[in-house]
Amino acid sequence: MGDFSQAFQIAFNLLWSMDVELYSIVYLSLKVSISAVLISCALGFLIGAALTVFRFPGRRVLLILFNALMGLPPVVVGLMVYMVLSRSGPLGVLGLLYTPTAMIIAQTVLITPLVAALSAQVLQELHHEYDEFFRSLQLSGREKLMTLLWEGRFGLVTVGLAGFGRAISEVGAVMIVGGNINHVTRIMTTAIALETSKGTLSLALALGIILIAISLLVNTSVALVRSKAKEAIYA
Amino acid sequence: MNMRILGFASIIVWACLALMPVAYAGAQKSIIVQSTTSTQNSGLFDFILPLFKKQTGITVNVVAVGTGQALKNGRNGDGDVLLVHAKSAEEKFVADGYGVKRFDVMYNDFVIVGPREDPAKLAGERDIIAALGKIASAKTAFASRGDDSGTNKKERELWKMAGIDVAKSSGRWYRETGSGMGATLNLASGMNAYTLTDRATWIAFQNKGKLKILSEGDKRLFNQYGVMLINPQRHKHVKSLLGQDFIGWLTGAKGQAAIASYKLKGKQLFFPNAQKMTH
Q: Residues A164-184: pLDDT tens digits?
């Protein structure tokens, strides 16, 4: 099975030769997943913080629900988003199916519960620490929420990265709502699925290696920024 | 505070970037074609669509799924043109008012591939019904698409002709993969199973392993592809003019010649057989 060494060689050649097709696929992958992560963070952090600060009936149920939805199967999300965006669906008039926007929507639906649940966990621990401080200052709910989000920012970045990891690696949802259209909605994971089905396993694996490398790069750069920021504060 | 402003700004920038290609795609002439995995995996589209674009300026965006799913998506209006291979299902699609008119485009054939050792002794058996009978009585592994695709419809039809109820053996020697042709070939290659595949996907497939063609040539293995416009009276957004352009090209002299000239490993994969268009 010379496939492995061959795959590394192909991956290297693709990167080295600045293959235009490859770079546009990588670009679209990043654009879709980063967009989805940013939207999910905007929503998920607020949900997580609200669940931490406010006490209301059904709060526990919501927490359990978001925790359970962390394991949402991508295909199911894809199918639901397809049914909503299909021309015969409720939002069909928008004509969003088979566009990158549809893929962003699907990934956002997929990872928002994850971001909400994990950020609730991060913020609850923080809230515990800050409880007396909040009491002494008699902060309003909104002020508490903002303080928690700000003080928990380093933990929340990790939560965002977890969301990014889930988004960039999923294939089931984007395949259905994007349609894997060449030059329009083809991203790394759907390209890998396509190459596998053609039986060109070395190329598929090469793309996989590149995907892992990108993921590594994103995580490393975020980690670097975070440690610099921490240094700036605590130094 | 700065961080928050920065955060919002970056979200807005990303949102703009995300929406950009949509606006761009709207500005140029393009249609969506719901089609099958065999036409994509064999490289046919990569060969003929650039020619079509060059001659007409129309971009064709292909969504390649099984014929069953393509028909379902077409029924929902998610596309402009359908190019699939299950004639009776296509005729029903048109008769039910979901498509306008169906045209023959091209054909090739199906073949039975299986392990080189050939435990069911299929080699040289031209009669497809006899070949399937041998597989069933030897109870050797057979990989079925099991996804209601054109190939799967054909395969079920053949089992029926052979008088074999495969549903009873599902999970034993009869294994339904529920996935595309390529994925099913990967599986057959992995577990040395027999399977029915269209010849184009087979020739283009690169992970053949120990598989080879064992039965071919029966008339009943004929594989006809048809094209039709999704009914614009049912779905207002269907780009009927651009769609008709594509159908006219595909069934006309230029498209037919393009199909005939596509070769892989020296072999012609699809044979044009459109009737003269009557407008």
A: 999 999 999 999 999 999 999
Q: Where are the alpha helices (DSSP H) in B42-180?
A: 44-56, 67-75, 87-95, 128-138, 150-161
Domains in chain A, number: 1
In chain B, CATH 3.40.190.10 covers 30-108+223-272, 109-221
Q: How many Cα neighbours within 13 Å face the side chain of B237?
A: 18
Residue A60: CB atoms within 10 A of its CB come to 9
User: Is the minimum CB–CB distance between A182 and chain B shorter than 8 Å?
Assistant: yes
Contact A196 B18 (CB under 8 A): no
Which residues in A lie closer than 8 A to residue B63 (C-beta atoms)? 98, 179-181
Tokens 């651009």, residue located: B242
Tell which CATH classification among 2.60.40.10, 3.40.190.10, 3.90.470.10, 1.25.40.890 matches the domain B30-108+223-272: 3.40.190.10
Per-residue pLDDT tens over the stretch B147-167: 989 999 999 999 999 999 999
What is the separation, in whole angstroms, between the first and last Cα of chain A?
52
Question: Which tokens sit at B91?
Answer: 């005729």
The residues in A 123-162 lying below 8 A from B, measured between CB atoms, are 150, 153
Q: How far apart are the first and last CA of chain B?
A: 66
For residue A105, give the chain B residue with the closest CA.
Answer: B18
Which of A35, A150, A181 is the closest to B18 by Cβ? Answer: A35
B15 or A64, which is more confident: A64
Distance, in Å, from the CA atom of B208 to the CA atom of B192, rounded to the nearest integer, reads: 10
